[in-house]
Amino acid sequence: MIGYHANPQATAETIDTEGWLHSGDLGVMDPRGYVRITGRVKEMIIRGGENHFPVEIENVLLEHPTVAEVAVVGLPDEQWGEVIACFIRSEGNQTLDVSDLHSHCRSHMSPQKTPTVWCHVQEFPLTGSGKIEKFMLRDKFPAGDYAPLERS
Predict the structure, then answer these.
(1) What is d(CA 134, CA 87) in angstroms, rounded to the nearest whole number?
(2) Which residue among 21, 36, 79, 107 has its CA within the 20 to 30 Å range from the CA of 3?
């Protein structure tokens, strides 16, 4: 890619002076040299100085039988910088048991990756291509559009 059509600012933000394209994707390379995309830089949550990748947390939660869809985002927090928030659409609109979801997370990943804010959603805001608009969740939560669930 040599640049964005008629958009020099976007080109300068994406392609560095040495010609490297910075896509914003995060990935890991396996021993055979294959790269697996693991997330996006913009979605990374920085909680108390530690980097957390939403896709890792989402994959754990998708293994829970009541979870149909999930989106994990960072919400601003004065103490931690960001806290991990989880927005879940349940299978068949089942009631979510936050304590059970919390226990599920704790048994499959380290404690600091476990969300502290849990919200049940009926449907997600989607892009035209059907992807969850995580920035909308992050922006609408403080406005009260999503009510956090309490742990039982």
Answers:
(1) 9
(2) 36
What does the block give as tokens for 49? 């100085």
Each domain of the chain, given as residue ranges in start order, spans 1-41, 44-140
Report pLDDT for 152.
61
**Contact by Cβ (8 Å): 66, 82:** no
The fold of 1-41 is Luciferase; domain 3 (2.30.38)
| H or E segment to which residue 120 belongs | strand 117-120
The rounded average pLDDT for each run of 10 residues, N- to C-terminus, in the chain (152 residues) is 93 93 88 87 91 94 97 96 97 93 97 96 94 94 91 67
Domain 1-41 and domain 44-140, same fold? Reply is: no
Stated pTM of the model: 0.81
- At the second CATH level, the architecture of 44-140 is 2-Layer Sandwich (3.30)
Cα 87 from Cα 91, distance rounded (Å): 13
Number of CB atoms found within 10 A of residue 53's CB: 17
Listed residue (149, 140, 79, 147) closest to 115, CA to CA: 149
Which pairs count as long-range contacts for 30-33, CB under 8 Å and 24+ apart, including other chains? none
SS3 129: coil
